[in-house]
Amino acid sequence: MKCFKYATFVAFNVIAALLLSGVCCFLQQQPTIRIEMDEAGMHRKLKYTVQFDNTFANSNCVYMLAQPLPAAVYVSTDELDGLQRLKMLDAVYPKFVDVEIITEKAEPFSVLLRGTPKITDTLTLPIHFRYHAASRNYTSATVVLGALQLYLSCPMGDKELIDTELLDGPDKFYCLGEHKTDFEEQSKQLTADNCNWRRVKADFQTERPLHAEIPVGDANDYIFVLYATIALTWTASIWTILSTRSVARRINEELTEQHLQMQLEDKVN
Predict the structure, then answer these.
(1) CA atoms within 13 A on the CB side of 248
(2) Predicted pLDDT at 188
């Protein structure tokens, strides 16, 4: 009898544990975001594969991927404008990005990629790496991309779809101003539509670390390059002056010869 009670007790606990585990897994199920980046070059693409479960896929919610970019990375606003016109991208980014300056003079910023939850959605962001100032100590620089974040906004009828287990904080709401690329945290939900964003936990997956090795010029060659440039500049300038004078002298000689010939012809006549 005791053995039967003990076996019943064990079986009950096992079944309860399995049921609770299933419930917890259901409650804590997170969106999955796979991030890939081209392996080489100064011009690359970031590819995001975003996966939601059926509950979100059938909703009227909107998500935003917030991708921080360090000073060593920039985007071409003309390129992104073209992609948006072709409906190949829906993004928020700075209206002007100086693509000419080096890393040491640039500032980091974020790009927001907008989408609607689907079973599987793919987004692509073209990025470009800046050159660094020359250095005496190293010949390459490691550029690391910032950690991606997922934000979700749902209308009134779909708010209950966002389980509190998926939120980074049950009382945290975020506002996104027009043309802004950074979310602002609020202590409570505001009535404005742009303050209805929640930051959501997600399973971020990458095959390789999101970093790149960018070549850096050797500052030890600065003096040699400086004097070589000065010498070449002076040589080219002197050659240009001498060539110009030579051409001018030849033209004067030809004109003088033509003038003398005309005088001789006049005397003959």
Answers:
(1) 6
(2) 65
Domain ranges of the chain: 1-30, 31-217, 221-256
Query: Other C-beta atoms within 10 Å of 256: how many?
Result: 10
Is residue 50 within 8 Å of 149, Cβ to Cβ? no
The band of 76, judged by pLDDT with boundaries at 50, 70 and 90, is very high
Residue 18 has pLDDT above 50, yes or no: no
**43-51 and 121-129 strand pairing:** antiparallel
Contact between 60 and 80 under an 8 Å Cβ cutoff? The reply is: no
Rounded mean pLDDT of the chain? 83
Q: Which of 206, 209, 210, 152 is nearest to 34 (CA)?
A: 206
Closest CA to 196 of 158, 143, 222: 158
E-strand ranges in the chain read 32-37, 43-51, 62-69, 73-74, 91-92, 109-115, 121-129, 140-144, 149-153, 173-175, 184-186, 197-200, 203-206, 211-215
Q: Cα(138)–Cα(81) distance, rounded to whole angstroms?
A: 36
| 264 confidence band (pLDDT: 50, 70, 90) | confident
Distance CA 43, CA 230 (A): 33
Of residues 58 and 188, the one with the higher pLDDT is 58
The tokens for 182 are 């950074």
DSSP helix/strand/coil, 173: strand
What is the pTM (predicted TM-score) of this model? 0.71
